[in-house]
Amino acid sequence: MKSFIDRIFKKRKHDAEQIEENKAILSEQIETSIKERIDQNKINMEEVEKETQKEQVVYKKPGHYFADCNCAKCVRWRWINQNAE
């Protein structure tokens, strides 16, 4: 009877050790997958930023800062920029 009880307790102890090892392995795997996803997202964000910077084209006005200015320079500038897009 004693050997039977010893086997049961040894098995329980062994199972508890296995569970702790599995938890440690799972936590490491989760950490590495999170780090990989973070790195991938950083790379994707850099690509998106580069694309948005390429898309944003800023035209500088020829020196007049009023929207309703109708001098030759401003009219020409508006006409060129409207046709450029």
- The residue fraction in helices comes out at over 70%
- The separation of the N and C termini measures 90 Å
Largest sheet: none
Order of helices and strands: HH
Q: Could you tell me the strand content as a percent range?
A: under 5%
Structural class: mainly alpha
Mean pLDDT score: 82
**Count the helices. How many?**
2
Write down the Rg.
34 Å
Compose a concise summary of this entry:
The chain has helices at residues 2-55, 72-84. It is an all-alpha fold. The radius of gyration is 34 Å and the shape is rod-shaped.
Describe this structure in words.
- The protein is an all-alpha fold and 85 residues long.
- It has one domain (2-84).
- Helices cover 79% and strands 0% of the residues.
- The chain has two helices and no strands.
- The protein has helices at residues 2-55, 72-84.
- The radius of gyration is 34 Å and the shape is rod-shaped.
- 0% of the residues are buried.
